[in-house]
Specification:
The protein has helices at 10-22, 37-40, 44-68, 82-92, 113-120, 155-165, 199-211, 226-247; strands at 27-30, 71-75, 97-102, 124-128, 131-137, 140-146, 181-183. By secondary structure, the chain is α/β, with parallel strands linked by helices. The strands form 2 sheets. The chain has a 4-stranded parallel β-sheet. A 3-stranded antiparallel β-sheet has the order 5-6-7, with no helix packed on it. Helix 5 (113-120) links the parallel strand 3 and strand 4.
Length: 251
Amino acid sequence: VSLPKKESDIDRFDETVRMAKEAGATVLRTVCLGGRRYETFKTLEDWENFKTQSWESLVRAEKVVSKHGVKLAFENHKDWRLWDQLELLMRMHSEWVGVCFDFGNNLSLLEDPHVQAEVLAPFIMTTHLKDMGAQMYEDGFLLSEVPLGEGMLDLAKICDICESANPDIQFNLEMITRDPLKIPFMRDDYWVPMPMLPARDLVSTLKRIKQHPPQKPLPTISDKSDEQCLAYEEANVRQCFQYAKEQLGLS
């Protein structure tokens, strides 16, 4: 669902939540940013304005979802680093607002998803289950969703963290088959909205990439026809389903 970014959006948001609840939904997923932090914000002031606007949107949304008794989970959508998101959650202090935890997104912000899951666990309401592969390129590293079990994440550990904190958690597969995303940490503009990011986070991320090289070439679709892309994505999704059932005990 789209957040109410201004007062005039509240009626639209209210109607969306009402219909979702009527359809049987108990948790709604949303995002604060449609793009990526390091690509979207050209100044630190832009980032700070986004944080303020996001807080105001979440406050509006919380009043609506609490009224309807439906939970709202905002995703770590390559925008919030761990402590940014935790600050919002603690400030909100509402049982109706929590996290849609994406297993791999914060690698693009040089964070360890395993640590992230442990800290955010009490707030995780739903998930985007995925595995990630990465390799270096001239301006940083390339990052891709890969079939479960072929990447660098300890999926069983993260799933256990989520289930221990929330026994009713739903694991929603997000196997996106696309060209690798460029994480250009060697470029100055990457750091503009993250000027205080610890050097140890970069070192830890690069160490993880070095220790977990891709088992096969990262997925690409720009060299394929539409029909080939569809078949490739379906094969990847089916492979993920099989792994989730056989290795993670999910069905």
